[in-house]
Each structure stands twice: as C-alpha cells, then as structure tokens.
From TrEMBL:
Domain MoaB/Mog: 251-389
Similarity remark: Belongs to the MoeA family.
Pathway: Cofactor biosynthesis; molybdopterin biosynthesis
Any single GO BP term: Mo-molybdopterin cofactor biosynthetic process
Pfam families, sorted: MoCF_biosynth (PF00994), MoeA_C (PF03454), MoeA_N (PF03453)
GO terms under cellular component: cytosol
Cofactor(s) named in the record: Mg(2+)
Known EC number: 2.10.1.1
UniProt name for this protein: Molybdopterin molybdenumtransferase
Organism per entry: Geodermatophilus amargosae
Alphabetized UniProt keyword annotations: Magnesium, Metal-binding, Molybdenum, Molybdenum cofactor biosynthesis, Transferase
Length: 478
C-alpha cells in the first residue's frame, strides 16, 4: 500500500473516531438532561438515520418540569363514597338473645317446633262443636252440659262428645272433637249447664297447631332487626342465642396541644376537649360500641404507640382535630401507618376531612375538624352512615323532609351548607324550619337546641323567606 493510501486510511479512521466521540458526548448530554443513568460510551457505529435523530434531539430544549399539583376540591358524595366502599363488614357473632337487641339477625333462624305446639283456646270461654251451637241466638240460646274445665298448663288430652261443652281458659289445650270456642261473654257462664247466646263460625277463637310457625320454616329471617317481638319469637322456638351483626368498635380521639380534659381548669389559650364526649355519644346513638380514648399525646413516640394500639382494638378510629397543611405531627405519624389523605371537601362547616385505612388490618380512620359544631356535622354526613353500613343496616341515612324556611338563608357558592335549625309542623300541613345562627357562629348552646340540619345545596346561594329547603331531622336512634 502507498504512503498516500496509508495516510488516507488513517484520516478516515480518525474522522470515524471523531464522529463516534461526538455522538457519545451528545447522547450523554441528552441523558443528563433527561435524568437517566449514563453508561460509558460504546464503540459500535450507529446508522446514519440514528445519528441524525440524535443530532436533532440534542438541539431541542428540555421538557418543562411538571407543575406541582393543586388541591382538588372533592364533593361530599365523592368523599362519602370512598368511606362507604372501604369500611368492612364485621363477621357475625353469637350473642344471648337479650344482648342481641337492636342488632341485625345474621342467620336464618329455622324453627324445630310448631307454634302453637297443640290446638288451644284463644280466649276464655267454652270449647264446643260448631254444629252444636250453630243455631244459638240471644233470643233462642242453646244449652249444653259442661263437662270439666281446661286451663293453661300441663294437661292430658281430653275428648268432647256431641252436645257437651268444656270450660277453657286462654291458652288451654282444646279437647279432641271441639272445633270452636264460645267466648264467655256470649254465655250465662254456667258451671254445670251453660246457655250459649251466640254462634262463632267453625274454627272461631281456636289456635291450631302450627298456625303461627310450623316445624322447618323460618321464624326470624336474615337481616331482620331484633326487637322485643323477635326476642319473643326466638324464645318461643327455643333459641337462647342467635347470630347477629356485631356493633362496630369505634375509638374516639382528639388531637391538639391546646386541649385539656373536662376535669381540668383551662388557662387562657386552652380549650376543653368536648369532641371525644360528643362524638362517642353520637357513635353510640348510631349503634356502635364506642369508647373515648381522650386527647392524643404530643410526644411523637407515645403518639405512635397510642394510634397503633387503637388500630389493633377497633373496627373504626375517629379523630377530631385542627390539622395543619404542613408539619403536623399527627398527620405525619398517621402517614407512617398507612395511606392517609386530607382533602378539601365542598361543605360548610368543616371542609377539611381526612380518611385512610391504616395498620396491619387496614382499619378505617376518619378525621373530622376539631371545631365542635363542624365535628358533629361531619359525623352526621360521613361517620354515621359508615357505622350503619358496618351494622348491615339497609337505611344508611336519616330521612329528609322539605320545609318552609322561616328566614332568608345565605350560602357560599360551590359549598353544601349545613345549618342547625328547629323544624316543626306547619298548622296548614307540612313543615316549617327556623335556622339557629347563620352558619358562621360555632355556638354549642344553639346546636344543643337544634332538632335538625338545614341542607343548602352547592349551587344555591340564597333561599328567600318562605322558600323550600331540605331538612334532616336529628332524632335519637332515627
């Protein structure tokens, strides 16, 4: 090979090496701008079209950094739906029938007995044959011979021949052959012979075996609320224990360094903790087994221990407090236990609401505002339906009515406002409601006088005096 050829080959090799180095530097620059991990340059030559693409990308400006997310307002329905979808359904438990009062039956209770267990008299009177008394009238009574008496209690079977009657008490076993009971008031109440002044139809005032419940049929159905009547029926079919939906265990806590217990004398700047008392009472009214823990500690390690212990012993944890946007220790400790989010909800009072499922068992934790009026309103809107869902109730929400407003109402646009009020029957029918305060005043005494919440929707800013509003009566146990 000639010298010129040798130099030409070297020049070509040098140009190729220079091109590779240039591409490597440009690729590294792209990687640095994009935040990718940079690997050492490699020697294989890239195709011409790839080199051109890299050259074009090298001169393009870097993509703009993503803007920080702005808080998104959530509707009341969205926040409530998230809570209701997350609350668990506790497994059924077996309780003594009296302890099951107020709970929902969690099984189909099938009777092994007939109710009544034998043919019996429905009232005091005379057992007889219907054909023997069919012609009896007040003007032409029928007279029958009385043979014995049957009262409620243990007794052997007896038989009744035609033309005879037997004196019976309510609940007494009916003699064989008798198919009617003549009420005592329709007779002269004779002891040896009795005059019958009226004729009941065949089967009248008689309870036949199994008329109420027959063996193998359902006495109390799944999902039935257990009250006095159901307890009576359970006892009658021989059940002293029954499977029920248990009361959810709800722990109630307050957060705030300014809080003191009600037994302490608050100093300037301190506030008595009323929320744990009010919310625990509200939870019990909703059907929960609620207990108040009290004020959360302000020392971080102790705070974590308390929260973890409540998650272990509760089906739902309820915390009231004024939660800061940044640097709030309670929020930080809650976040260490699981995904916990605080959001702005389009409601007034109490737009700041929190919810998460924390701990090993992902226990629902609901955080409500620390201002007492807002705390109880938030309970009505979010917590009470959650408790009733855990109880297995079909009706999660309080019933509402339409009422005439006695005063002009103002409400912020875009927010659903809840005002305490007094609702009463209107003399002309329907309801009339009078607001207590204007919604900006957190007055406990006014709230204590209220018997309802006035609900003003998000798109309504004013309700004229005499206008219709939605009212949610606050009836105990309703």
């Amino acid at each position: 090979m000639s010298e010129n050829g040798t130099h030409g080959a070297r020049d070509t090799t040098a140009r190729e090496a220079t091109a590779r180095d240039t591409m490597a530097r440009e690729t590294m620059a792209l990687d640095l701008r994009s935040g990718a991990t940079v690997d050492p340059p490699t020697s294989p030559r890239l195709p011409v079209h790839a080199t051109a693409a890299i050259d074009r990308a090298a001169v393009l400006p870097p993509p703009p950094a993503p803007e920080p997310e702005t808080p998104v307002l959530r509707t009341v329905e969205t926040h409530l739906d998230e809570i209701l979808a997350a609350v668990p359904q506790p497994e059924p438990i077996e309780l003594a029938v009296l302890d099951a009062q107020g709970l929902l039956c969690a099984e189909e209770v099938v009777s092994a007995r007939a109710l009544p267990a034998f043919d019996q008299a429905a009232l005091d009177g005379y057992a007889a044959r219907a054909e023997d008394v069919a012609a009896a009238t007040p003007d032409a009574p029928v007279e029958l011979a009385v043979v014995g008496e049957s009262v409620a209690g243990a007794a052997g079977p007896t038989a009744l021949a035609p033309g005879l009657a037997q004196k019976v008490g309510a609940g007494a076993m009916l003699p064989t052959g008798a198919d009617v009971v003549v009420p005592a008031v329709w007779t002269d109440r004779g002891e040896v012979r009795v005059q019958v002044h009226g004729a009941p139809e065949a089967g009248g005032y008689v309870r036949r075996t199994g008329d109420d419940v027959s063996p193998g049929t359902v006495a109390v159905r799944l999902g039935t609320p257990i009250g006095p009547a159901q307890i009576s029926l359970l006892a009658a079919v021989g059940r002293d224990r029954v499977q029920v939906r248990p009361r959810p265990r709800v722990a109630v806590l307050s957060a705030g360094s300014e809080l003191v217990d009600i037994t302490a004398q608050p100093t300037p700047g301190q506030v008595v903790d009323v929320n744990t008392y009010a919310l625990a009472a509200a939870a019990r009214d909703a059907g929960a087994a609620a207990y108040r823990w009290g004020i959360l500690p302000t020392e971080r390690r102790r705070l974590g221990e308390v929260l973890e212990s409540q998650l272990l012993r509760s089906d739902l944890v309820l915390i009231a407090g004024t939660f800061a946007t940044e640097g709030d220790m309670v929020q930080e400790v809650l976040a260490e236990l699981g995904p916990m989010r605080f959001r702005q909800v389009t409601m007034h009072p109490g737009p700041v609401q929190g919810f998460g499922r924390l701990g090993r068992d992902r226990v629902p934790v609901i955080c409500v505002p620390g201002e007492p009026v807002a705390a109880l309103v938030s309970f009505e809107v979010f917590v009470r339906p959650a408790i009733r869902s855990m109880l297995g109730k079909r009706q999660l929400f309080r019933r509402t009515v339409q009422a005439i407003s006695a005063e002009r109402l103002l409400s912020p646009l875009g927010y659903r406002q809840y005002l305490h009020g007094q609702v009463m029957r209107h003399p002309d029918g329907g309801y009339v409601v009078e607001p207590l305060g204007d919604g900006d005043e957190a007055m406990l005494a006014r709230m204590a006088r209220a018997n309802c919440l006035i609900v003003v929707d998000e798109d309504v800013t004013e309700v004229a005096e005499g206008g219709l509003v939605t009212v949610m009566p606050l009836l105990l146990g309703g």
